[in-house]
Amino acid sequence: MATATTLLILGATGDLTSRLLLPALGQLLAREPERRVHLRGVGRRAWTDDEWRETVRTAFAAADAEDVFTSLVDTTYTRADITDADDLAKLIAEPTGRLALYFAVPPAVAAAACESLKDVDLPDDTVLALEKPFGVDEDSARKLNATVTHLVPEEQVFRIDHFLGRATLLNVLGARFANRLFMPVWSAEHIESVLIRYDETLGLEDRAGYYDHAGALVDMIQSHLLQVLAIVAMEPPATLERRDLRDAIGTVLRATHVWGDDPATASRRARYTAGSVDGVPLPSYVDESGVDPSRDTETLAELTCEVRNERWAGVPFTLRSGKALASKDGEIVVTFRPVNHVPVGLTGDAPGTVLRFSLGPDRMDLDLNVNGGENPFGLGRATLSTDLGEGALRAYGEVLSGILDGDATLSVRADAAEQSWHIVDPVIAAWRRGDVPLEEYSAGTEGPSGWPRPA
Ligand code: BG6
């Protein structure tokens, strides 16, 4: 029988809870009904238990998991100020089983709540889950780490990055580490470049309060794509257990720097203007409600990094993500160097082999040079493809299952959280100084003109 957990969602009336956490919880419980979860919603709004229960029921229904809603009959809602130690003490009193506090709130509120938790007696096995962004820069991330690790040991802290729960990212591990075809050539000697791209069609979606302060660089590159880079570039861990995997991630991120240490040439930023995405008109970003145009928030960011170690020095890793683009499309593209010499007699181009992982729908493609057909010595391109299949759980389901099991393997360790800020802080500073122009693109296009989509 799985350990019972009292899961307190702090920020229960927010968008993240209804859109991502609750559907994922429903799906998880439908697959693993033996789990015993005592769910408590906590928020600042004056909701009734019935309003909360209805939110949970609707979210479970959206995940085809309405049936398991009945297993949460005792779910209740409490109105509280989570930055107040007395309120917090009442909230955590007498949990059933392990206590898990999930902070689905903005970073400043999470930081204030963790500060107040210092005055509260937490059960020893309490786990704390904190949503991204973890802090607002390296310094604040370090302070927040000091606060949370004063409350509970590091292995009970879950800094959430739902990309680490994505099936595709986990699939990279198998392709990379279980094939002799790739293992010996996974280095600068054979790889020319790596592109990690996550293009979205969604616009702001009423998230100005958060997004207008974060922008694409923090929202996606700092929070998610650097972790993807780490999985692609890390040294092979001996096991995929928590310590080994996170050691490998931490080590490779410590070696990761902005290309040439020059954000002005290694980064680009842009913001969408009015346009239409999939036939639906979208207003200009600056006209969205809650946006402060003077903040110059970017909705598309690109950053090239170098991993300065023996394996990777000299290979550009380009990370790019944007909103309101022409298509939803995420991928990891590993481009190998061309061979040194093609035998005279084989005709046509022989560009480098390309290995591509698509991030939803999950698939893997290998573009190779082959000859044959009408002209037996003519080279052409062929693609070997395989669907990687859907993960059994949504990414947030993986995240929640780790929290309920008390297994922090697929969450971000303190050093990695600080280091990912260490990498992007100089870029943020350069953008604030105006060293990199803020370009524009029409919503529904592939980005600014003269800024071609990376190959
Ligand atoms: C979130 C970002 O963390 O990830 C969003 O805040 C983004 O802006 C989302 O849209 C992308 O991930 P997914 O899994 O929803 O495609």
TrEMBL record:
Residue numbers annotated as active site: H224 (proton acceptor)
Binding site for NADP(+): R44, D81, I82, K132
Entries under PANTHER family matching the protein: GLUCOSE-6-PHOSPHATE 1-DEHYDROGENASE, GLUCOSE-6-PHOSPHATE 1-DEHYDROGENASE G6PD
Known role: Catalyzes the oxidation of glucose 6-phosphate to 6-phosphogluconolactone.
Protein name in the entry: Glucose-6-phosphate 1-dehydrogenase
Annotated keywords: Carbohydrate metabolism, Glucose metabolism, NADP, Oxidoreductase
Family: Belongs to the glucose-6-phosphate dehydrogenase family.
Gene transcribed to yield this protein: zwf
